[in-house]
Each structure stands twice: as C-alpha cells, then as structure tokens.
Write a structure and sequence with these properties.
Blueprint (H helix, E strand, L loop, with lengths): L1 H6 L3 H35 L2 E2 L2 E2 L2 H8 L1 H34 L4 H10 L6 H12 L4 H8 L13 H25 L3 H9 L4 H12 L1 H16 L3 H6 L7 H10 L4 H25 L2 H4 L4
Helix pairs in contact: 4-5, 4-8, 4-11, 6-8, 8-11, 9-10, 11-14, 13-14
Subcellular location: Cell membrane
Protein name: ABC transporter permease subunit
Membrane topology: Multi-pass membrane protein
Amino acid sequence: MTKNVTNFLSPEERRERRMILLLLAPALAVVGLLLIGPLIWMGWQSFQGPDGFTLDHYARFLSDTVYLSSFVQTFRIAFVVTIAALLLGYPIAYVAAKSQGIWPPIILGMVLLPFWTSVLVRAYAWLILLQRRGLVNTMLIETGVIDKPLILVNNEFGTVMATLHILLPFMVLPLYATMKKIPAELEMAGASLGGGGWLVFRSVFLPLSLPGVIAGSVLVFVLTLGFYITPELLGGGRTFLVSMLVSRNIELYNEWGAASSISMVLLLLVFLIFRLASMLIPFERIMGTR
C-alpha cells in the first residue's frame, strides 16, 4: 500500500520526503546511540551472571525483602510528592492563567526560580533549614510553639519536602499550559445559565483541565521514582529508594546484572504508568493536539 502511494507522489514530494529523512537522520542516530543502545545493553546485562545466562537477578525480587521494601517506599514517596505537588500547583497555575498584565510572567518566574540553582545546592539548603538547629526548628522554639527540636530530616518528611520543592514546576507548567487553552466563553456560558462560581468551576473548568492534571502528575511521579541526590542527603539512611538500591549494587558489590534488573523492572513499571495514563486520557489530549 505504501509503495503504491509513493508511486503517485510527484518528484517534488519525493525530494521533500528524502530531505525530511536526511534531516531526521542525525537525531535518530543520537537516539539510537544514547538511548536505545544502552537500553538493549542493560536488558542483556540483567540476564547475565558469572556462568552466563541466569534469572537469579530477577528471582531476588521474590526472595529479598530489601528489593520489595525499596520499591514500596519509592512509590509511596512518589505518590505523596505527586499529590502534594497537585494540591499546591493547581491553585498557582489557576491564578497565573486567570491573571492579566505582568502577573502571569511574575508568578511563573517565581515558580521557575529554583531552576537557577542546581539540585545539589537546593538539597543542601533544605538540609540546613530542617536540621535540629536549623532555621525552622529555631524559629518554632523561640516562638514557643515547641519545646524541643522536631525531627524534620533523615526521614521521609525531609525527602518529600525537598523533592516537592524541586519538582513543583513540572506540575505547574503543564497545568498552566492546559488552563490557558480553556476558552473563557465556556465559563461565561455556564454562568449565564445560572451556575455559581463553584458550580461552573467544578462542571466546566475542572474537567477541561484534566489533561494538564494527568500530564503534570505523571511527570512528577515518574521523575520522583528516579530521584537520587535528594533522598541520599535528606533521607539519612532511613529513606532507601530504588535509585539508591541500583547505586549500592554497583558501588559496593559491583553487581551490574542486579542493578540492570532493578532498572529494567522500574522501566517496565514506568511504561505501565504511561499506559494507564493514556487509558484515562489519550496522549493527543494531553499534548493538546486534539
């Protein structure tokens, strides 16, 4: 069928197709070299042991409780961070989308301000703020709110706070982009039919903003699954995520096969998340092409 269609193309259209393929070739080569190639190598490595082919690396998921607890803690933290980012990011995106004049750039600029510093610097900043003699505990003690310092770091709370701060822009930006595409006439029509502010928002604006909610939630959730520096610094050994499990297998035990199997399982779970998200809302709507 494709061959028959090609035969009906004019010489100019054929040249245009060849030119497009030539322009895409460098990008396709980079993707194949830096993405597809390493993924194939990682998948092959996950089945390799000292004596050749083995399934022992995957069998550890059923026998080693460390693997299961690490995945459970990782997904729990990712879920909490995603919900918190949605609760904080939705009002920010809503205000930015509804504002006029110079306010949208100011609001978005404040959201993007953390990008001006590295993740490592921001993680250390949270460590200074939340430690036993940090700014937060000092202020609470001096104001009489608490009598002794709270344990805010070296646990999941510190990890969630720092991760939320770093990933909040990834929730706000998709929400803002989706909200800006919602015609104001639809809300005006709902109000003209007697709907109050909350009813119009719940029945009109909120459903239309769901593509941004899904896009931002998936993005934040997936990025949290692979976080390493922040839980390493603020977790204090009590937060042991999948990324740290991969690192330990390579750094301490030189177990490239085990690390590859963990990475492959996490990758498959991420693909499953994207699949579930596409079942809720097609990617065409999420990307704004439909």
